[in-house]
Design a protein that fits this description.
CATH class: Alpha Beta
Number of strands: 5
Order of helices and strands: HHHEEEHHEEH
Helix content: 40-55%
Shape: globular
CATH architecture: 2-Layer Sandwich
Strand order of the largest sheet: 1-2-3-4-5
């Protein structure tokens, strides 16, 4: 059961990353030396900008909740400053699988998925960080994984 849960986590994290990043960004900026399209980082954190985290969250939430697998539902996205926060609920309770085990198996996969998706990577290099919070069926937080542009520079 634990292996199945971990595999399901990997699949829906990759899918959710693609959905969130596809909603987020246009192609109106110039490419930098590293091939990443860079923009004015401050611009994307302002709530009036159409690509700000708050606007992205607003757009994503119109499509939620979304069943990601038989054990998980992406139920909310919010924005706090320059961070886009995704929230997922699992059909199992906190404690069923130890947080350290989930983190040990998921952190690399989540960061790799975020950094390898072009539009999410662009968002990260434009100064928007992303967090993924997993909630158990009892409403308790299981874990949160945060991703920033520094993670993409560290080889993800």
């Amino acid at each position: 059961m634990r292996v199945r849960v971990i595999i399901v986590l990997a699949v829906f994290i990759s899918f959710a990353t693609q959905i969130a990043s596809n909603v987020a960004l246009g192609s109106e900026n110039e490419s930098g030396k590293d091939g990443i399209i860079h923009t004015d980082k401050k611009k994307y954190c302002e709530s009036s900008d159409r690509y700000s985290p708050s606007r992205i969250a607003e757009s994503i939430n119109k499509k939620l909740p979304k069943k990601m697998s038989r054990i998980s539902t992406w139920y909310k996205t919010s924005a706090e400053g320059c961070t886009l926060k995704h929230f997922y609920r699992f059909s199992f309770q906190k404690g069923r699988i130890p947080e350290r085990k989930i983190r040990a198996e998921k952190v690399d996969k989540v960061k790799k998925a975020a950094c390898s998706t072009e539009s999410t990577r662009k968002m990260l290099f434009d100064g928007i960080s992303v967090s993924y919070t997993y909630i158990g069926s009892n409403g308790q937080r299981i874990t949160t994984i945060k991703v920033s542009s520094l993670d993409c520079q560290d080889g993800y």
